UniProtKB/TrEMBL annotation:
Record's keyword annotation contains Transferase: yes
Name of the protein this chain belongs to: Leucyl/phenylalanyl-tRNA--protein transferase
One Pfam family named in its UniProt record: Leu_Phe_trans
Keywords from the named record: Acyltransferase, Cytoplasm, Transferase
Database matches in InterPro entries: Acyl_CoA_acyltransferase, Leu/Phe-tRNA_Trfase, Leu/Phe-tRNA_Trfase_C, Leu/Phe-tRNA_Trfase_N
Ranges where the record places region Disordered: 1-22
Originating species: Thiomonas delicata (Thiomonas cuprina)
Molecular function per GO: leucyl-tRNA--protein transferase activity
């Protein structure tokens, strides 16, 4: 069977999501290749349910998988071990929860090689484009700091009433899971969500995310585009304890 893949030039519009490669294709969910990776293109992509994912030696690749992994904030699963870990971190006086204090540092830490691979999709062009989105108020980071050291981080994109989770890292036990709790608590506080998790993984499923058919995700995206996003993304331990109390 032969599949046709859209090839984009800088400034081209994305094709409709239903034109993405089907699940029996070699790269299911791949919609287009090429184009420009900048803040304007990223904003257009997310508004259409499309996200970038490619390696350092590849052209820009744009994806819209079916199904789509989605986390409804109220459906977050916090297991006993994570509750215990969260309480322990809350008692640590040197550990602070912050938002947007060093967005670029969070992205750079997320881009660092992992134990299981030397590859990263968070290439310099991606870092620069998302940092521009951050200056425009469309991308945000949740951070754990121990004194002056960034020890865990998560960054996301926010358009209207939907949040698009991107990547996270941690250098402390359960740090990234704790930040996902914080993001869910923040979303519940402001009545926003769901959180787009993009790809299906066992880790996300264990945290409560589940696959949605693409058409259901696109309906939620269209509905959320009419909503007003939070006026402030400030978040700290006091708000975390109040919003996340049911999970603690």
């Amino acid at each position: 069977m032969t599949w046709t893949l859209a090839r984009l030039r800088p400034g081209d519009r994305f094709p409709p999501p239903e034109q993405a490669l089907p699940n029996d294709a070699p790269y299911p969910g791949l919609l287009a290749v090429g184009g420009r990776v900048d803040a304007k293109t990223l904003q257009a992509a997310y508004a259409q349910g499309v996200f970038p994912w490619f390696g350092a030696d590849e052209p820009p690749l744009w994806w819209t998988p079916d199904p789509r992994m989605v986390l409804v904030p109220a459906e977050l699963k916090v297991r006993r071990s994570l509750r215990q870990s969260a309480r322990r971190h809350l008692r640590e006086a040197r550990l602070a929860l912050r938002t947007d204090s060093d967005f670029r540092a969070v992205m750079q830490a997320c881009a660092a090689p992992r134990r299981d691979t030397e590859q990263t999709w968070i290439v310099p062009a991606i870092v620069d484009a998302y940092c521009t989105l951050h200056t425009q108020g469309l991308a945000h980071s949740f951070e754990l700091w121990r004194d002056d050291e960034l020890v865990a981080g998560l960054y996301c994109v926010s358009l209207g009433g939907m949040v698009f989770g991107e990547s996270m890292f941690t250098r402390v036990d359960d740090g990234s899971k704790l930040l996902l709790m914080a993001l869910c608590g923040f979303c519940l506080r402001h009545g926003i969500g769901p959180i787009d998790c993009q790809q299906q993984t066992a880790h996300l499923a264990n945290m409560g995310a589940r696959p949605w058919p693409r058409d259901a995700f696109m309906r939620a995206l269209e509905q959320s585009s009419q909503a007003q996003g939070p006026a402030s993304w400030r978040y700290d331990w006091s708000q975390f304890q109040r919003d996340c109390a049911p999970w603690l």
